[in-house]
Amino acid sequence: MGNAHLLVVDDEPNILTTLSTALRLEGYSVDVAGGVRVAEEKLQKRAYDLLLLDIALPDGDGIDMLTRLRAARNEIPCIVMSGHGTIDTAVKATRLGALDFLEKPLSTDRLLLVLDNTLRLVRAEAEARELKAQAGWDGEILGDSPAMLQLRERIARAAKAKDANVLVTGERGTGKELVARAIHLQSPRAKGPLEKLNCAAVPGELIESELFGHEAGAFTGATKSRRGKFERANRGTLFLDEVGDMPMPMQAKLLRVLQEREIERVGGGDVIKIDVRVVAATNRDLVAATSTGAFRPDLYDRLHVLPIEIPTLRARREDIPNLTRHFLELTSRANDRRGMKMTDDALDVLSGYSFPGNVRELKNLIERLVILSPDETIDAEQVRSFLPQAGVPAAGGLFRATVPFRVLVEEAERTILQEALKHYGNQMAATARGLDLERSHLYKKFRALGLREKPKDGEDEPLESS
Ligand SMILES: Nc1ncnc2c1ncn2[C@@H]1O[C@H](COP(=O)(O)OP(=O)(O)OP(=O)(O)O)[C@@H](O)[C@H]1O
Ligand SMILES: [Mg+2]
Which of 306, 304, 210 is nearest to 250 (CA)? Predict the structure, then answer.
């Protein structure tokens, strides 16, 4: 089980050195952190396969850190290690989903064994989930809201343009990977390969050889030559996920490849022609990143020849009931609990929730409800109890823990517009005047926020910047 990328958190420099040496010898990639702050920073930056976590840390408590991770919906597999292995901490850690508990002093053999078993288990579970998902579902993009109809049309059009690069943007869980796959499958390249590279999951120094391949001896550890993703994706599509996380030096190299349509392997001289369409995805604001210097504007231009923006789930709430019914059907079948239903009230509760994690969050929520609900019919009360604590507003306030700022602001805007419209007797013109907004801007806001109040006065929507 080499290859896995681990984060080891311990305050003892000696332990960090010994552990990381032993683990690297086994073929693991290892990052270390001496405390909670550094560990949290690293976890923000990269998706690790596993976390090895000490409990007593100089700047905090490992259990508290794990609690925060779980509250933020980070389900990274975790093994806890501690010198003061009280039953109490072990129980707490297990409740937070720690997969094993190792007592210090650590035995390297035992650690390696536990690691290997844990990673096997995690991988097997992921594969099982994947298979289950595939069995019941063919990757269809669901949703009948106007925004989704428009999205499907854009996908079809982008697919037809065989060589134009596409940039897919959208918040986490909106279905960027799904869209990338749909573009490939509907394109003339469908018979060719679809290759994927997640720029956030691969360490910066490895991205180059992942993309372009390398020749034997190109760097330590490169014993054999290897084709990179671009070569493998030849005559097909390369999906560059989280492209906003690509390190600067790589951005320059990628730009050159997109311009010249040829690559060179790392440590190799031959120039190789490639015929690849790049579909890139990001949940970052790349335009903002170009103005702060974090992303090359010329690369941005090359990538977003055809931009596709996926709307958030809360901007198309009318899709929530159908998506819910679909996921309900799917997961109840997969879990041998056929016939699970949801009351209309329960659907209303779901439709009112903000879903910062978008469709993925909805899907996971339904899965948990199906597995854990004692009855065949899920009611509003149950749904409410499964929504994160954060779904409940603090008394009178607008702030809610763990909800992104963007979502909070959108919700505040939505409330303001609804109240204003009511105040001005549902007259769009009066509302715009009262709020000192351009009428076209008000309409645009309404659409962006997924509000569908029909103005009573039957006013036509004005043209842009009237
Ligand atoms: N319109 C949709 N119809 C059906 N399923 C969807 C839809 N959108 C997303 N999903 C499902 O939600 C989950 C998340 O989708 P996906 O991985 O494509 O999102 P993403 O935008 O790439 O997220 P992230 O930014 O976190 O990588 C997947 O299980 C996907 O099948
Ligand atoms: Mg994704």
Answer: 210
**The two three-digit tokens of residue 335, written as one number:** 């879990």
Ligand nearest to the CA of 142: 1
Domains of the chain: 5-133 (3.40.50.2300), 146-309 (3.40.50.300), 316-387 (1.10.8.60), 399-466 (1.10.10.60)
pTM above 0.85, yes or no: no
| Six token digits for residue 166 | 């596409």
Q: Tell me if 73 sits within 8 A of 363, measured CB to CB.
A: no
Selection from 25, 31, 29 nearest residue 7 by Cα:
31
Q: In degrees rounded to 5, what are phi and psi of residue 30?
A: -130, 135
Ligand 1, residues 167, 308, 359, 364: which to mutate, most atoms within 8 A of Cβ? 359
Q: What is the pLDDT of residue 1?
A: 53
Does ligand 1 have an atom closer than 6 angstroms to the CB of 356?
A: no
Residue 43 near residue 74 (C-beta atoms within 8 A): yes
> How far apart, in Å, are the Cα atoms of 296 and each of 89, 90, 167, 254, 290?
47, 47, 14, 11, 6
- Coil, strand, or helix at residue 135? helix
pLDDT digits (tens, 9 = 90+) for 329-342: 988 888 888 888 99
Could you tell me which residues are beta bridge partners of residue 78? 51, 98
Q: Model confidence over 97-126: pLDDT tens digits?
A: 788 888 888 888 889 988 988 888 888 777
Please identify, by atom number, the ligand 1 atom nearest to the C-alpha of residue 310.
21
C-alpha gyration radius of the chain: 25
